[in-house]
Every structure is written in C-alpha cells, then in structure tokens.
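User: Study the fold:
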Amino acid sequence: MPPSLVRAHRLAIPSNEPEAHLDDLVQRLEHHLPENAKVFGITYKDDSTLERIRQRYGRCQPLRLDMADDLAITDPAAGLETIQEAIDAPRAATLIRKHGEADLVVARHLLEHAHHPARFLRALRTLLAPEGRLLLEVPESTKFLSVGDHPCIWEEHVCYFTRATIEVMIEQNGLRIEQILCYPYPLEDSLVVIARACGRAHGKRPTPSPILRRERERCSGFAESFRARKERCQKLLHSLHAAGTRVALFGAGHAAVRFVNLYDLGGCIDHVIDDHPAKEGLCMPGSHLPIVDSSHLARADLVLLAVNPEGEDRVRAAHAAHLPGRGRCASIFSCSPTALL
C-alpha cells in the first residue's frame, strides 16, 4: 500500500520496541565512535538510544532529525511510513549541507518499513562521513515464520528479514558489516547490524543459492501452514462459543486485528479489551468487535492475549483481580508457553 494509505487518519499511537538490549548495544559502540562523534538519529524510535549515547559518551553530539525542519513533514499524524518516503538521496544531500556528515547514523526499526529498501539504504549511506558507521536494527523474523504465527504480518512492514537475508542485502548496497548482533526476545529477536561504507555497491553480486533455498522454504512453509491453522482456530473457538463460553481478546493492536480478520474469528469473540484512552468507544477494523475497558475481564470465560509474550506476566499481574477463578488465558502466538493451539 502507498504511504498515504498507511498513514493514520487520527493521531497515531506509537508502537513500542524491545529495549532491554540497548545498554549492551551502546556499550559495544565504544570501538566504533571517534572523539566528538556526530551521531544522527532518524526517528523517535532512536531517542532512547541517543540518550544512552549522550550519557555514556559525553564527547558525542547526538542529533535526532526534526520531522518538520529536516524532513519537511508537517502532518501531525505522520509516522514511519512517511519518514521512510522522505529519506532519499536529495534529502540526504540537504541534511549534509545543514548538519554535516555523521560518524554514526542510528536507524532502529525503520528499514522494514521502507518501500524501496535499497534506495533507503543508499540514502543513509550518503549521510556517513568517510569512516562513519550505520547502525540498523530490525525485527528478526525466523521465529514467527518457522512456527506459522500469521498475526505477526503487519501492513506497515514491507520487508521481513532474517539474519541471512539482511547480511546479503547490506553487502549488496555498498556497505560492509563490521558487527551483527542478535538479541533474543520471545516473539521476534532484535537484529542489530553495524556497517560502514565500502565504496560502490556490489550490484549484481549473486546471493548464495543455499541461502535463497533455505529462506524460500521457510517462507513457503509459513504460507502453506495458513489454511490448517485457520481451520484449527475456527474449529476450537466456534465450538467453545457454541457451548456458551464467553471469549474476550485482550489488546486492540495490529496483531489482534490480524488474528481476527485473517482467521475469520469475529463471530466467536464477544469483545476486545484495551484500556488505551485513544481506543475507547471504537470498534476493531473489519470485524467491528467493540473495544471495551478491562473491567469487562470478569465477564469472560476465556481471555485470548494478543500482547507480546514478553509482557504476558505483567498483564496477568496487573489484572489478576479482574480475572475470574474459572477464567483461562491463552496467547494467540504459537511461540508463547500459553499458546491457544
């Protein structure tokens, strides 16, 4: 979809990324940062990293690009879909004239949103000083692809990377990987690449066929598992609903939307629970299920958790008083120890 269609019509609700690894990551940057390093962050997702750099390396000069002044984006509802479109070679040249070249460019969780990822990488590469580094972070998709967690597909993510595929892509676009780190998380690992420019892009450098074969098989398996998983979810939840079980879905985020719509489950879920004030009184896209607050938890016999498995324990602890004794909780994600299936 074009960025204009993905862009929020209301003020967007920022998505949260895992950050438990950032202290370790920033510590590892010591060998990549020169004295008085100039550091650019591209989006709000880089703020926490820039703040850690500022605290640990007082000599550095972190700068986060301004949406209006640097990227000419004035729509208050604009998000990553609009920022990725604004980052191109002419924009990079303008930023260099204004701010100079960067010793480090930080771009966390943005490459997967890029509609033209090669062009986007070349623009970030242009921002670098001759010895500058680019720090990229993306979700590592191997886990959800391997187990068939279809709700992980999100319309705002154009690309889905594994460690193998991002290594090939980085090296084919004029960058040399100095370090690649994979920080484990329950749903998607965080994949961090530190790279530097190495002259011209390799262009038509062939991708090793075993890598292509393995990744194609992984994606094919993900697609082929869809029908069977959809039928299993429908059979289970329709039978529970027919028996009078009251089913609630906890968390009105994009994973919940995908779970209900991809598996066509709207008819066997009573409501969706979310305490975010911006969602109060609204309905879920597609299914039109009502979004209600957590006081409705006590009415449910089965609560399906559509939250990141990393936060399941916090949700259970926070809402323990509202979960009925006979109630059950299950995660919509296969990688969770409490998976529905």
Q: What stands out?
A: The radius of gyration is 22 Å. The mean pLDDT is 91. The chain has twelve helices and eleven strands.
